[in-house]
Amino acid sequence: MLAVSKKRRGVEHQAKQNERKELQEKRRREAIAAATCLTEALVDHLNVGVAQAYVNQRKLDHEVKTLQVQASQFSKQTAQWISMVEGFNQALKEIGDVENWARSIEMDMRTIATALEYVHKGQLQSACS
Question: Where are the annotated segments for Disordered (predicted)?
Answer without folding.
Answer: 1-26
